[in-house]
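TA notes. Do not distribute before section.
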Amino acid sequence: MVRKAKISDVPLIHKIINEFAQRGDLLPRPLSELYDHLRDYNVIESPHENNSIVGVCGLGICWDDLAEIKSLAVVPTHQGKGYGRSLVEVSLKEAREFGIPKVFTLTYIPRFFQKLGFKEIDKSKLPQKIWADCLKCPHFPDCKEVALITYL
């Protein structure tokens, strides 16, 4: 079940995201940032494990016409069950409700997002993202992430 993240979820969200970050699959997120942006995040619970959180996804609003799917992570033991797809679909629904026509992501797994209708674009088409977050990234400017976008 996908639901909005609660304050009590932050330590586990932090753990999940930063486990992926240690492997180089996501950017790390400090606790303070997660608390500051808690309303951006949804989590998914496993009904088979006492509704424990097994995945997370954020929707960050970048501009009046652009949002970002960020920090999508599903714990390895629960991948391949459609949890990542569910998290992204809820984020896209939220973007529609906000009236945001474009949603992008930066990912090392473009195929996953392409199956959901995202199309690859050049990162230079995302200047708000580049100046807001990419400059702070240790991989900038040699980032290997692929930029993808979908139009709602």
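Switch to the second chain here.
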Amino acid sequence: MRKFSDEVIIMTDDGSYGSKGLVTNGVESVINREKVDMCVTIGPAIMMKFVSLLTKKYEVPTVASLNTIMVDGTGMCGACRVSVGGETKFVCVDGPEFDAHQVDFDEMMMRMGAYRAEEQAAMAAYTNQK
């Protein structure tokens, strides 16, 4: 990142590396300091939701790179279905990048929890194999 960026701001929950705070603290400090033409958010859905809410407040165009559950990668299964601007989209074929201000993150996070029990069972089985 440093090779291709003028500045890299690292935020950690406990301040053990970079600055202590949320990603939104770092984003807001840049927005308050200079004109921001675009924000790109990639990471956990809850983080992208709050980055999107923040940048919407400041009217900064924002792209979210979504990482929903994908089963077949063709859009046939519908596992990666999200609502964007009130329309149904499939992350695997229509994305994964979308206008973050149009993504229904609450619906997306609810859908991402659909296989939570299976994911936990698979992780337990994997951990016990070691």
